[in-house]
Amino acid sequence: MRRVAVIGVGQSTFVRSYPGSIRELAFEAYRDAMKDANLKPNQIDASVVCSAPEYDKQRTPAGLMAEYLGLNPQPTFYVESVCSSSSSGLRTAYALIASGLHDVVMVLGFQKMSEITSAESQERMGRGADIQWEAPFGTMMPAYYAMYARGHFEKYGTTEEDLALIRVKSSTYGVINDRAVFRKALQLEKIMEPKYIATPLKVFDCCANADGSSCVVLAAEEKAKDLVAKPVRIAGLGMATAPINMAARQTFSGLTCAQLAAKQAYEMAGITAADVDVAEVHDCFTIAEMMAYEDLGFAKPGEGPLLIRNKETYKEGKIPVNVDGGLLSKGHPIGATGGSQIRTIVLQLRGEAGEMQVPGAKIGLVHNIGGVGIYGNVSIFSAV
Amino acid sequence: MGFEQFGIVSFTSATKAEQFVEFLKSNELRGTVCLDCGAKFFPPRTDCCYCLSDRMDWFTISGEGRLVSFTTAMFAPAGFEKDVPYTLGVAEFADGTKVFGRVDRSIPQEQIKVGMAMKTRAVDLGEGRLTYELVAA
Ligand SMILES: [Zn+2]
């Protein structure tokens, strides 16, 4: 198989309500990535379009996007794994290039969540679980992740304050990320106010819905070197799944899909967790980042709280995590999230992350989860 | 009438497992067991993913389970707003079967603990609708 590299990244500013249509929202990330890669539309051999359905009325969005972005008559199609859609898109695009079928493939992620109300959005997300046996009870994402939080608390003695410390860190970096939706610094006392969404998760344990788009352009590495000065290699990819139904879950203290995906990605890249210089993890809720520390091997099971208490996941720490503010501060426009995480890591490995830069970062990791641990994607990138 | 009777809001009109609702009418919570390989399933399914058989029988969830995890939702998705707050939980029974559902709202919140003994109970929601919940054993 051929090696594959990232040659361009882009994202829109994530906002609560984007004053335009999905095609215009998508174009913002596309323009950003195409300028980054210095490419013309006819140099894109195929596109993979990613979002979660039912937030807007458009059916078969790949066809719409290909037209609006100027990518006809090249192939395009839609890839979906809810919140990890654009990481699944990356995996698909990687295969298209590694196989030799195409040389340059674009992954576009978008979501305009503000087309519907917050309660409708919770209902959509709740239906991203088992609609036959669970949704009839009134399920929603915060409630599902809250059951994992309770599981982690019971098994390891983790506290609400440990989770709050993750939000403190997130807000520290949200302040310096001009593409983030939430840019206010938050103090621990504010986060600890007992405004519960689903116990033990409180309002600041949860990320905000947002409108946004992301775009990642990949190329065969041998071509990438002719196209851009600093291609970033895709060194390892892992993806695993777990039962959609909670009754079939083995544990409520970690996500098995993430554990398996991480193992695959580390093996493919020939590295261990200790080699990772900077990571983006799927912190749709604070508990999700806590479990990611352990599922990715940054901490032993149950020792995630020590990492955050000791500030080891800050920029100056042993393993910087979500130093762009993560989903908690950037916002979580479902289909665009993975591409935004990938963009952050690519900028880090090119030394272009500005105030967020982790000095000398050579290996970066993206952990992107779909649903409540239904889909786990872990991708490892390295400076070439 | 079939499976659209199940739950507070139903999102599925028909399933080959709809006899599940009939059992709820007699206060029985049932899963399925594969007649060919013995695999047990809850929620019930009519196809065995281990041996591919479609020969299933029903078994009753009985005895005491233990609460594995739970949460009390203070906000609700569209269609469930009037129920807030409500508690969702997972209980594990002696044979390893896990059951996800609402927790009896008459249990004071501070008394709900991981590890507490639970059993299941069918609930008549009125207007022909049925569900089940986890209650203190
Ligand atoms: Zn069987």
Structure overview:
The complex is a heterodimer of chains A (384) and B (137). Chain A is α/β, with parallel strands linked by helices and 384 residues long. Chain A has helices at residues 22-37, 61-68, 85-98, 118-126, 141-156, 160-174, 188-191, 221-227, 256-269, 286-295, 304-309, 326-330, 337-349, and strands at 4-11, 46-50, 76-79, 104-112, 196-198, 201-202, 211-220, 232-241, 278-280, 363-370, 375-383. In chain A, the strands form two sheets. A nine-stranded mixed β-sheet of chain A has the order 3-2-4-7-1-8-11-10-9, with helices on both faces. Chain A has a two-stranded antiparallel sheet with strand order 5-6. In chain A, α6 crosses α10 (286-295). Chain A starts with a strand and ends with a strand. In chain B, strands 4-5-6-8-7 form a five-stranded mixed beta barrel. A three-stranded antiparallel β-sheet of chain B has the order 2-1-3. Chain B has one helix and eight strands; from the N terminus they run αββββββββ. In chain B, a hairpin with a 2-residue loop joins β7 (117-126) and β8 (129-136). Chain B has one helix at residues 19-25; strands spanning 30-34, 40-41, 56-60, 65-73, 86-93, 98-103, 117-126, 129-136. By secondary structure, chain B is mainly beta. Classes of the chains: A alpha/beta (384), B mainly beta (137). The A-B interface holds A 117, 119-120, 122-123, 125-127, 130-140, 142-143, 146-151, 154, 196-201, 245-249, 252 and B 3, 6-12, 15, 42-43, 68-81, 83, 86, 88-90, 97-102, 114-115, 131. Bound molecules: zinc ion. Zinc ion (ZN) is lined by residues 34, 36-37, 39, 48, 50-51, 53 of chain B.
> What does the oligomeric state look like here?
heterodimer
Number of strands of chain A: 11
Instruction: Count the domains of chain B.
Output: 1
DSSP helix count of chain A?
A: 13
Q: Terminal Cα separation of chain A, in Å? A: 17 Å
What's the overall geometry of chain A? globular
CA gyration radius of chain B, whole angstroms: 15 Å
Can you count the helices of chain B? 1
The shape of chain B is globular
Biggest sheet of chain A, in brief? 9 strands, mixed
Helix content of chain B: under 10%
How much of the residues of chain A is beta strand, in percent? 15-25%
